[in-house]
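WARN no homologs supplied; continuing
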Amino acid sequence: MLSFSALFRLASGEGSGPSPSFTRAHFLLAFLAIGDKGMIGRQALAKEAGIGEGPVRTILKKLIESGYIETIASGCRLTRLGSDVHSQLRRKLSPTVLLEGASLTIGSVQAAARVRGGGRKLGNGIEQRDAAILVGASGATTYAIRGGKFTIPGSSSNCEKDFPSPAWKVLRREIPLHDGDAVVLCGAESDQKAGVGVLSAALTLL
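OK structure emitted
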């Protein structure tokens, strides 16, 4: 787990001088995108992470210098170290699922991801909502999986019953869920902002 922790420190910019022009969530979103795609170019990565090519160059430089990725003519890819860390992170955090037409939280585009074991750390959800809004999302709601049900601590013990929506079936189909997990649902005005909002909120539960 040392390499996993080191990646988080790198993403937080510890000891890196002036504040970078991207957040920890943008940094980790870029890293995850490289691993998920297998190979990706700089322009495509900038679009995926929702930031400019300048910040992406900075992120890639940090990842290369730390041994997580390597670049070749066709783009960048993970090293063996990067692949190991990517697998660690993906065991904790599912890929993001876009929910078309959902209205379970604020925002025209809604996306969700599961944090394994995150339900045990979830309080009232305000920390996750604030983390999502901080990176440009419109809002976020976080559910704890308890007794096989989506719950909101202190509010609803069965969200599927209390807030009917086709989105619940999509979440169950696309994301493996277990008791004790958390599911972060984030709304925004674009796919990119919803994705980085989900990750920013999820990081508070890792």
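Residues 93-203 form a domain with the Gyrase A; domain 2 fold (CATH 3.30.1360.30).
OK
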